Write the structure tokens for this entry.
Amino acid sequence: MEEYGWSPIGATGHSFARSGDLVRTTTVVLDAERGASVVSGVRDLVVLNTTGSEFWGYPKDDYTTLPETRDRVLATAVDARWRYRPALGGDTAQDWDAAHDWDTEFAAAKAALLAAFSGTYSYSLQQTLYAMGTRVLADVPAACEVRLALPNRHHYLVDLAPFGLDNPNEVYNAGDRPYGLIEGHVLADDAPQEGLAWT
């Protein structure tokens, strides 16, 4: 058995981030011919909404096992990366460092991800992904593109009837059944060409 602490995020009272470590990432590419590119990000940022999420009306076939719901636990482990606009005035490491406060921009991007996750009434994880990406672009003007991968970690209400107990939406099991991996990217209208650090 493993137990994790959760810290509240946002003002809703139903959004949480798992306490503990996350992975901060950065990729820097310096190319004499094509310039420089910087992509920063975060991996394993585990978040959960206990309500405020629905998923229904989707196509089904003989292999569909996910039941429709108008109120569900929405949980994911955020893998987000954001590409920075090129440095103004030059392409050296010093130019990039002079143009950015990396710690402040990382904190702003992480806060934007959490605010969008907790502040979005979610009709699908795809919608939430888009809200998270657009919020990073709005709150971190130095970023011009955001790529996200969000595994949909389903939580199922535990049937306590065999034990003679009621479960009024209090005990859930994080399922190991198949789940969706939702991926997408959000690009600023004025984003420069694809950054070298994506490759």
Observations:
- The longest helix spans residues 102-119.
